[in-house]
């Protein structure tokens, strides 16, 4: 693989995929453990943790607002050339301006919010965020083939993203997640960064297994404690308000701390859970139709990964069908 050129290779059980925004739940879970350890409170102002962030009206944004995508800086830019340079990232934080008043509405922060969370993890733990995610989440879960920051030696296993139909703008426009931006994740140097809001790499099985401890009291099948059950219950409680609505579908977004909660209002399929999960199911999908969620009422968790980007309508129908069928297994 050179310069992001697509390769067509047969998929095997060892094939890995870029999971895009499913990564948010993994980095989010790592942040939950920082809170569990008493190192972080979601009520804290980000500027008290990262002084460089406290400029241009961002002084009073809280960690909770960042985790809920109501912080007010969804379009804050961060060039790919700056992703793996901490000083440049901090400089960007200082330059960022608000798009709207923090807390006033919901708007998806495709990458900006999770760069802030990554820096918070580093400030609070003294460790590189990728190393912390590996140490506290992935290794204890036994997810050796799940990566936030892909080693160069594993690059040959990753399926390159391909647009199977000509990409067309979704309702509301592309925003930050353009076809060209998606294709940058075919580049080895980008995969190596471990972009916290969308650069994780793994397979469907690993994605499903990530959720297993989270829907089973915080413990793996082998008895390894990842975090307390109380931490998971606290972190997966809906915290957004009625006025925090999906701009396309005009339904409450049901955001917990970095994850989406299915809810019991009949809109679970709009939130990425199909139509048959319980109200307590939680997770986070990703660009191209990646699926990741778990349901604490049934103990089911689901992972779906793909390298083939299709149109929005087919992608939506496929996601609803897969999630609905998976949730019916125990019915």
Mean pLDDT metric: 93
Sheet with most strands: 4 strands, antiparallel
How much of the sequence lies in strands comes to: 5-15%
Compute the CA-based radius of gyration. 18 Å
Q: What structural class do helix, strand and pairing data support?
A: alpha+beta
**Which quaternary structure do these chains form?**
single chain
Assign a percent range to the helix content.
Answer: 25-40%
Number of helices: 11
- The run of helices and strands is EHHHHHHEHHEHHEEEEEH
Beta strand count: 8
Flag low-confidence runs: 1-6
- Name the shape in a single word: globular
How do the strands of the widest beta sheet line up side by side?
Answer: 4-5-6-7
Distance between the termini: 44 Å
Give a description of the structure.
Helix 1 packs parallel to helix 5 and helix 1 packs across helix 6. The protein has 331 residues and is an alpha+beta fold. The chain is built from eleven helices and eight strands. A hairpin with a 4-residue loop joins strand 6 and strand 7.
Write the layout of secondary structure elements.
Layout: E1 17-20, H1 23-36, H2 46-49, H3 63-67, H4 86-95, H5 112-125, H6 129-138, E2 162-163, H7 179-183, H8 188-193, E3 200-202, H9 204-215, H10 229-235, E4 260-261, E5 282-283, E6 291-295, E7 300-304, E8 308-309, H11 312-327
Parallel strand pairs: 2-8
Antiparallel strand pairs: 1-3, 4-5, 5-6, 6-7
Helix pairs in contact: 1-5, 1-6
Brief rundown of the structure:
It is built from eleven helices and eight strands. The chain has 331 residues and is an alpha+beta fold.
């Amino acid at each position: 693989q050179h310069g992001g050129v697509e390769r067509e290779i047969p998929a095997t059980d060892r094939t890995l995929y870029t999971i895009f925004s499913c990564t948010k739940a993994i980095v989010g879970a790592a942040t939950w453990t920082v809170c569990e350890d008493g190192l972080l409170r979601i009520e804290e102002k980000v500027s008290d943790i990262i002084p460089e962030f406290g400029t241009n009206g961002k002084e009073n944004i809280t960690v909770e607002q960042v985790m809920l995508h109501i912080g007010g800086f969804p379009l804050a830019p961060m060039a790919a050339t700056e992703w793996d340079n901490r000083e440049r990232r901090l400089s960007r934080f200082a330059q960022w301006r608000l798009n709207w008043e923090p807390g006033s509405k919901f708007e998806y922060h495709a990458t900006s919010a999770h760069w802030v969370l990554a820096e918070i993890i580093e400030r609070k733990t003294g460790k590189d965020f990728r190393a912390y995610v590996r140490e506290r989440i992935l290794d204890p879960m036994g997810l050796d083939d799940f990566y936030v920051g892909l080693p160069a030696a594993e690059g040959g296993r990753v399926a390159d993203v391909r647009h199977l139909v000509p990409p067309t703008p979704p309702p509301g426009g592309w925003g930050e997640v353009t076809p060209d931006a998606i294709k940058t994740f075919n580049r080895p140097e980008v995969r190596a960064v471990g972009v916290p809001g969308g650069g994780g790499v793994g397979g469907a099985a690993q994605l499903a297994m990530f959720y297993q401890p989270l829907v089973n009291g915080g413990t793996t099948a082998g008895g390894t404690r990842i975090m307390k059950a109380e931490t998971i219950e606290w972190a997966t409680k809906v915290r957004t308000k009625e006025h925090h609505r999906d701009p396309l579908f005009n339904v409450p977004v049901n955001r917990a701390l970095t994850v989406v909660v299915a809810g019991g209002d009949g809109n679970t399929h709009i939130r990425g859970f199909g139509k048959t999960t319980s109200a307590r199911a939680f997770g986070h999908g990703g660009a191209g139709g990646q699926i990741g969620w778990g349901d604490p009422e049934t103990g089911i968790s689901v992972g779906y990964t793909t390298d083939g980007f299709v149109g929005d309508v087919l992608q939506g129908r496929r996601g609803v069908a897969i999630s609905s069928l998976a949730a019916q297994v125990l019915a």
